[in-house]
Specification:
globular, single chain, 13-stranded parallel sheet, alpha/beta
Length: 291
Amino acid sequence: MGGISYTVSNPHLMGVSAGSYSLAELMFPTLCVGVAFAALLNRTFGLTEGVPAEFSDVSDTDWFKADIEKALAAGYIKGYPDGTVKPNNYITRQEASLVLARLLSLSQDVETYYFSDYDSIAEWSRWAVMACARRGLMIGYPDDSFGPERNITRAETVTILDRIFAEVYNAPGVYGTEVPTEVEGSVVVTSTGVTLQNLTIHGDLLIAQAVGDGEVTLKNVVVRGKTQVSGGGANSVVVIDSTLRTVDVDKEGVTLRVQGTTVIDTVNLNAGARVEEDGVEGDGVKDVNVD
């Protein structure tokens, strides 16, 4: 269990397209422009759904248009009042904080972290900076400054993503050994054909959009945080002998199949999703809310 690995085979660190950003550019601490930042977020979170991008500085032929559209659909970018999104501008640390706070739905934090340059943090981003600091995502520099107007680097971005997800399962396979294993953090599944077994996840579990209509199975899995199901098909998300707290199913047409000794405190069903119990022994799903 080692977080986001810095290898050529890791798709989150591959160049975002031929002729744009190479692996080397992502690996070394060069400054990160907005489209590279969005591409890394989209890949790590397995975002595949987009909405039309109608910005004056984004054309149909731009290689990054799809990533901008995914970012818009996820709600973490909104563009500027002049109708632009400035895709090739460097992104500052306070801008990155706002993007992350929106993507992760962080609460507007009332707790104040006394960075030495606190007064230079823009008011529009201050709540997001505090929320990211509370989560330990962006913790400042050794001199106790946050550097709100410093441009974020690609190395810093990868470090943040590693702090968000302890494990990224992006290829088909069975993950987890025959003995129980602890995962200290959150987990994301971005591929079909993934089985997680004998894991205790001390964070959240995201079954991402990138799973499509594919299959994901949880077998003897405990999730201490929230489980979000954004991918899967009519009968392809199966939960066996597992313990989950809150499960949010937000993809249309997904059926959450609950089997064995599984216990789920609450399932929130959105967009025509369903939950079915099949041979459940014990409590099964305790509460179901339909939106």
